[in-house]
Amino acid sequence: MLHSSAATGKRSLSVTVQDNRYVAAVLLLSRNGKQILARQAVNQTEPGTETTLEFPLDGIYTNDLLVAVYDYACNVTAYQTSFGGNVEQPAANATLRAAVPGTDDTTLFLELNTEDKSSIKALNENNPLPASVLSVTRGPEGKLLLASNELDDAKNLVSTLYSVDETDYSAVAIGKRSTAAYTSMTYLPSLNGGTLLAGYGYNLLRVDTATGTMTSLGSFASVIGSGVYIVGMICRPGGDGGRHLR
Q1: CA within 20 to 30 Å of 43's CA: 16, 51, 157, 200, which one?
Q2: Alpha-carbon Rg of the chain, whole angstroms?
Q3: CA-CA distances (angstroms) from residue 36 to 33, 107, 121?
Q4: Closest CA to 167 of 121, 124, 210
Q5: For the chain, what is the largest distance between any 2 Cα atoms, rounded to a whole number of angstroms?
Q6: Residue 6's pLDDT is what?
Q7: How many CB atoms are closer than 10 A to CB 230?
Q8: What is the pTM of this model?
Q9: Which parts of the chain have pLDDT scores under 50?
């Protein structure tokens, strides 16, 4: 169900899901299924439960979506969804930037102007970051942080944390390579003076933004099953006045 606020103009999509066992996650995909627009873990604790998720549509500039519902065995059912009305587009001459994997295990930072979508340019073409990107977030004082996508000698997925200088998009490694991969990251400035959290499978990690040291904060496996994986994190205000990690 599509919701729209007359006061703020904000739109959201309400999705209700149910499985004979457990629903693991719901993703909003582009119509061709190649781009993930939004995703949420469902985190059901009892089989056959009906769960309703609310997807804010800020930053999603299309009325034609696929709603993909996954179970823990990675079975997926996708539903085509189309909305009526107009879609608010980015402001004229807005600049969009993205970190994308390059060739030979590198990362390129790209820039796109919304007025001329053919004007994609690489911001660090002459000095690509020497590791493939896995996730990015903003850290202390808005610093751009990037986690790499690497394999250790035993072929395990691991990450190195980088600090990116946005004047020339050069990057400096923060500490040594971790023994875990940071598949998602979020920075909480109000938690203990500033805390970088990372997800690795179903494990929640804390990463020191000065030294790169990683500490495990625990696992969700014993609560909602070992088949649950952290694919994204966001901190939002809660109804009790506090802030909640989702």
Answers
A1: 157
A2: 19
A3: 8, 19, 22
A4: 124
A5: 56
A6: 39
A7: 19
A8: 0.58
A9: 1-8, 85-87, 237-244
